[in-house]
Amino acid sequence: MKLLLKIWRQKNNDSKGKLVEYPISGIEGDMSFLEMLDVLNQELIEKGEEPVVFDHDCREGICGSCSLQINGEPHGPDRLITTCQLHMRKFNDGDTIVIEPFRATAFPVIKDLMIDRSAFDRIQQAGGYISVNTSGNTVDANAIPVEKDKADASFNAATCIGCGACVAACKNASAMLFTSAKVSQFALLPQGQVEAAERVQNMVRQMDLEGFGNCTNTGACEVECPKGISLENIARMNREYLTASARG
């Protein structure tokens, strides 16, 4: 395939960026999107030009670091996949592909397509953990009964990889789906009840401090989430927050 790539180039968060056009050819349908970018970068390096900076790690749909806005969609035109799992057969010969970083105040651009998502880390650190007795009187977690439906719902929430697609898809750049997934995975388990009230209040407070917007109730976050995190988690987090606030 021959393609025209329009890629966002930006030196750092303090400089202005712009879309730069790069024609590319010889792209096979079985290539992943990131492999296509590797081909482009190899060509740029051979020409003595600076390669395009983009984030990636596992390339197996697990780490969430490969997040890109592709033709206006987080992770591109496919569903329930990350950018590294998107294959070029989803595009046609002669297509123009616009590639940008995720857009959010809380996700400042580091360079080109790479953004700083450490805001998610700080939300997690604010309450995304449970207390564990390490005094020598520990109880095997498997000895605590957990209803299967709650265990399944907790596991589904825990599949969130923190890629930020929910934020990029939301017109308010809301992190409600991410935060609610991290709240839910513990709120559903008996081990998570010790600091349940403190957890949800601290995580929501940190989310607001990071500059994320509020939920729009449009559901775009769930549609674009590569792991299919449900909007039910937002409803659960709201209930947890109201309950915690009522108790003082």
From TrEMBL:
Residues 151-181 form the 4Fe-4S ferredoxin-type domain. Its cofactor is [2Fe-2S] cluster; [3Fe-4S] cluster. Gene3D superfamilies: 3.10.20.30, Alpha-helical ferredoxin. One of its GO terms (biological process) is aerobic respiration. GO terms for molecular function: 2 iron, 2 sulfur cluster binding; electron transfer activity. It comes from the Bacteria. InterPro entries: 2Fe-2S_ferredoxin-like_sf, 2Fe2S_fd_BS, 4Fe4S_Fe-S-bd, Beta-grasp_dom_sf, Helical_ferredxn, SDH/FRD_Iron-Sulfur, Succ_DH/fum_Rdtase_N. Belongs to the succinate dehydrogenase/fumarate reductase iron-sulfur protein family. This is Succinate dehydrogenase / fumarate reductase iron-sulfur subunit. It comes from Robiginitalea myxolifaciens.
